[in-house]
Design a protein that fits this description.
Length: about 180
């Protein structure tokens, strides 16, 4: 096995890969002033992902049960009670939720608006994935990650595509072909 690793073809493949990496790192992308902005947007989206998941779940619990208890939030999200408590405190600091002693967690108007936006994004992403042939179960699972990182511009494009498809325009089947 060690002889295979020392084989000249393997070394050449490694050096080609290294050369490709060097070319890529020498690319003008790193000098693009918009690159920092794109990274900042990605970091902000990751930071909001957790809050969006909590707000969406709290809205669902309030709708279904009339209350959203920290214990239930922790259990459903698969986190510890202290973790849920810490995140709920962050929701309060961000003005998205309020806690009432012995009554649980409630969303502010801003929290309700965020939950509505997250649900809309989730629905659009699921519908698009299904429209391009992704099975329902996979579409739901994949949308859970995508929904937090898709821009409003992209969502608008998804919506236009879905409307065009519904109006008899071209849509893609499971094979990715019209």
């Amino acid at each position: 096995m060690a002889a295979d690793l020392d084989h000249p073809l393997n070394q050449k493949a490694t050096s080609v890969t290294a050369a490709q990496i060097r070319r890529r790192s020498d690319s003008s992308d790193r000098d693009d002033p918009r690159q920092a902005e794109r990274f900042e947007k990605a970091r902000a989206a990751r930071s909001m992902t957790l809050l969006e998941d909590y707000v969406e779940l709290i809205a669902d619990l309030l709708k279904e049960h009339g209350e959203a208890r920290t214990t239930d939030i922790a259990r459903i999200l698969g986190v510890t009670h202290p973790t849920a408590t810490k995140t709920i405190a962050r929701l309060r600091r961000e003005g998205l939720a309020v806690s009432r002693p012995y009554r649980g967690v409630f969303l502010t108007e801003a929290g309700i608006a965020l939950a509505d936006r997250v649900r809309r994004r989730h629905r659009l992403v699921v519908e698009l994935l299904i429209a391009v042939g992704v099975p329902q179960e996979s579409a739901e699972a994949d949308a859970e990650g995508i929904e937090h990182h898709v821009s409003d511009v992209t969502l608008s494009a998804f919506e236009r595509y879905l409307k065009k498809s519904a109006a008899g325009g071209r849509s893609l089947g499971a094979t990715g072909k019209p």
